Amino acid sequence: xxxxxxxxxxxxxxxxxxxxxxxxxxxxxxxxxxxxxxxxxxxxxxxxxxxxxxxxxxxxxxxxxxxxxxxxxxxxxxxxxxxxxxxxxxxxxxxxxxxxxxxxxxxxx
Length: 109
Fold this sequence. Notes:
Elements: H1 3-36, H2 39-72, E1 88-89, E2 95-98, E3 105-107
Antiparallel strand pairs: 1-2, 2-3
């Protein structure tokens, strides 16, 4: 698998999962509304789908922004050339970032 393919999968999978789960929740609520004749559940289904789509678009936009920064050379890179994740802190209090591609750990100075 190529470097960019791994990065794209890791960046856009959360947005796709949120969209799919929103469709599943909305379908479940819609079927419950049909079975019980509840109008409020149908409205809740449409609102949950709308919310899932908006969250998914926000996640995809943020991923696109990070990918653009990585392509321009603004975002930090791993030794393998991959995109680094957000900064994290381990149990010793040291800050680090992990590579999206190889999983390597890069210490933050």
